[in-house]
Amino acid sequence: MSWEVVIGLEIHTQLATKSKIFSGASTAYGAEPNTQACLVDLGYPGVLPVLNEEVVHMAAMFGLAVGATVAPRSVFARKNYFYPDLPKGYQISQYELPIVEHGELFITDDEGDEKRIGITRAHLEEDAGKSIHEGLDRSSGIDLNRAGTPLLEIVSEPDIRSAKEAVAYMRKIHTIVRYLGISDGNMQEGSFRCDANVSVRPRGQEEFGTRTEIKNLNSFRFVERAINYEIERQIDLIEDGGEVVQETRLYDAAKDETRSMRSKEEANDYRYFPDPDLLPVEISAEYIEDVREQLPELPDAKQHRFVDEYDLKNADAAQLTISRPLADYYETAVAASEAKPKVVANWVIGDLLGALNKEGLGLADSRISAEDLAGLVTRIHDNTISGKIAKQVFEAMWSGEGTADEIIEAKGLKQITDSSAIEAVVDKVIEANPGQVAEYKAGKDKLIGFFVGQVMKETKGQANPGQVNQILKQKLSD
Ligand code: ADP
Ligand code: MG
């Protein structure tokens, strides 16, 4: 039997506000436990939440960026449940009337084609605190610093068909929220995490299978692994005559498996009702138009522009537009260099990103500025050095030895373009290899590579390769 996988993601992204969604306490990460929770976050009686306007602005930006409807009126609701990290006994969220509905985005699917993923809704809510078990003896600690941190929960349609597509979708959302500057997207710190709903059905069947929900996945790798494990588990279970039960599961990264956490709650278990302490959020059409005007160029638009304007391959444009700082780096380098944008792209993607990855560094830690990289590429373009020597210069730049011009000068790496100098070396090589010359003349054309190699060796790679080729061919045909 052939199975089809169905996945829907619920992504929680922390919004990058200075203060919390309903209080003035700081949202900064990493403070001493319980130093950033005020009476509102602690759920004291008699205090009232006040909505942080910034979160409305951020949610509206997101909604417009994914082509969604930004609701003129949305309502905060209480989602009631008991848990030690939720002192009020309810989480303030949005339920029936979320602020964002009916959006979409496009990913590249497993076949390499563009695929639409629907976004059902995105709603505002507050984060809960954290339970801490590590380093405590037979007790748990509660840190409420995170309580009340604003979250945007982004719910996808069940349009995703593989773990890879799920990762592509999650990456796209990650890129969008960072382009908009509404979240730092820091996954280690839990600012960007997702719950994956997974089911399988016999291929061709219309009805969805029973789903399980894997909670709190906080890395792209874990999302892919947890979903793949869960797909296998469900298929094995059904093929062995069992049934999938609707439940919440946890992914254990150390064991690379998911396990049951609790049976799934139904919405009515939460006794949702509109929060009487908060007014409905009303947004005017004018406000929405203002937000629309302020939107930055978004990843897809930037990618298409890079293809058109710089004549890049789609895949390269996609890679260069993965973050705004990288796209800006590239465009700065293009503007500062005389070389073709395509050549600059190769250096940024291949050499610069390669060097950064090798050391696990981010772009902000790059040892070579966009202007300096442009300086290097320009020296290839104007034939001062060959592409091969440029690799050597790049290494030296990376090690902090100076700009391309300084290094070329200090190490005497300038390309030899003087044809009489090249001719002299060519003559020497021809004289030293009579056997190969005879073979070449007898028709073994491939030997040209051998001669080029010899000349390059003699000139320490500094002879202009085009000239070497031309002079060699000419002399060998004499
Ligand atoms: P709940 O209210 O229980 O969280 P929702 O209807 O809001 O459930 O759906 C939550 C997520 O689960 C959505 O992303 C949705 O696309 C996804 N989903 C719903 N049904 C299925 C299914 N049968 N298989 C996989 N994902 C599903
Ligand atoms: Mg849900």
Comma- or semicolon-separated keywords:
single chain; 478 residues; alpha+beta; Arc Repressor Mutant, subunit A; 3 domains; nine-stranded mixed beta sheet; three-stranded antiparallel beta sheet; binds magnesium ion
Write up what this structure looks like.
- The chain has three domains: 3-288, no CATH class; 297-411, no CATH class; 419-476, Arc Repressor Mutant, subunit A (Orthogonal Bundle).
- Strand 8 (130-132) and strand 9 (141-143) form a beta hairpin.
- The mean pLDDT is 94.
- The strands form four sheets. A nine-stranded mixed β-sheet has the order 2-6-7-10-1-11-12-13-14.
- 40% of the residues lie in helices and 20% in strands.
- The chain is an alpha+beta fold and 478 residues long.
- It has helices at 39-42, 53-65, 163-180, 220-239, 285-294, 299-310, 314-320, 324-336, 341-358, 370-381, 387-398, 404-411, 419-432, 434-441, 448-458, 465-476, and strands at 3-14, 69-70, 73-74, 76-80, 90-94, 100-108, 114-126, 130-132, 141-143, 150-156, 192-202, 212-217, 247-252, 257-263, 273-274, 281-282.
- The chain binds adenosine-5'-diphosphate and magnesium ion.
- Adenosine-5'-diphosphate binds next to strand 1, strand 10 and strand 11.
